[in-house]
Amino acid sequence: MIITIDTGGTKTLIAGFSERGKILAKTKFPTPKQPKKYINAISENLKDLFEEYFNQGQVEAISVAMPAVIEEGIVIWAQNLRWRNFDVKSELQTVFGKKIPIFVENDANLAGLSEARLLEKPENTVLYLTVSTGIGAGIISENNINRGLRKSEAGRIIVEYDGSMREWENFASGKAIFETYGTYVRDITRPKIWLNISDRISRGLLVLIPIVQPEIIIIGGSVGSQFEKYGRMLTNIVKDRLPTNIPCPRIVKAQNPEEAVIYGCYEYAKDQLDK
Length: 275
Known about the structure:
Order of helices and strands: EEEHEEEEHEHEEEEEHHHEHHEH
Strand content: 25-35%
CATH superfamily of the largest domain: ATPase, nucleotide binding domain
Radius of gyration: 18 Å
Low-confidence stretches: none
CATH architecture of the largest domain: 2-Layer Sandwich
Strand order of the largest sheet: 3-2-1-4-8
Distance between the termini: 18 Å
Structural class: alpha/beta
């Protein structure tokens, strides 16, 4: 079994995968705001859900996704959780021992990895965008996480919106949308509001596309799950505003918008175990 942990700014999802990539069990809980409480919650939930597998030595690896810049298992900085220099890998090794491999990677990178590998036709460059509590981006090159750009923080690029220069996720994330309209994206139905949301999302894409030049952009997360409501609007805005010499990539919905990260955790762990 490979245990996967998707640590979000709001909630944490844990799932156990069989060798063939089937989810055997999963659970979800609010993400604790303090690192120590987070480790305690992970420990309690893993032992409750997978005690039999631990006792029988059947846990191959634990793969952890973080909405953060990661360096050798350490959270250097997690914007939405306000965690800094949090050694996730060492803390989990203290609980589960060093015999079980523990892998830690950025959540958008992992989601992008899984979604890129689900495409019918492999693409040279895939830009995965997760729009949830915050905004994160994973850049996938030839079906692997681009190592040179794995620490990118797309949600924090500075762009113009409403007459001022602002961080992209401060006005285009799910959290920002909730603060603006007082409702969750799943409950928004008015096309005029979705046009405004499309405009917000487009501001960052118009910066990223000329630099990354992806063949396809995949949008996931809670806002990505509502793609049918705004996908065409977003594509049209991006096409209209891009310079004519820069092709507009396909913009599509993630195949697993709410669970892309845990599938990416599984794929990443398999890659690391096979090395």
